[in-house]
What we know:
The chain contains two helices and seven strands; from the N terminus they run E-E-E-H-E-E-E-E-H.
Amino acid sequence: MEVEFFARMTVAHPMENLERIGCPRCGREIDPEWFDRLTDLQSPNPDGFDNLDTTVPCCRRVLSLADLDYDWPAGFSRFRITLWNPDRELTDENLATLSMTLGHELRVIHAHP
């Protein structure tokens, strides 16, 4: 297990699992390579993101990266717990309990390097 804290927002990228990103405004698909290039510029740079707002390439609207529709969840945070090859999955109940205990919504990001 690895626990990390960041000064700014950083991306938890699903890596090879990410196949599709959808725009919630226009409904079109966004090329995952656009997301990869954008996040490579910001993270894992220890400075991270000042702001998650960006202009999406499909409809040129300003949206938060957190609001895009990822086919495998992605996340943005200043805190991360990483479990490498866990022997069991967190249940929804486990995740809800952890979220309540920490006082923040948690999301499981399955990354395949």
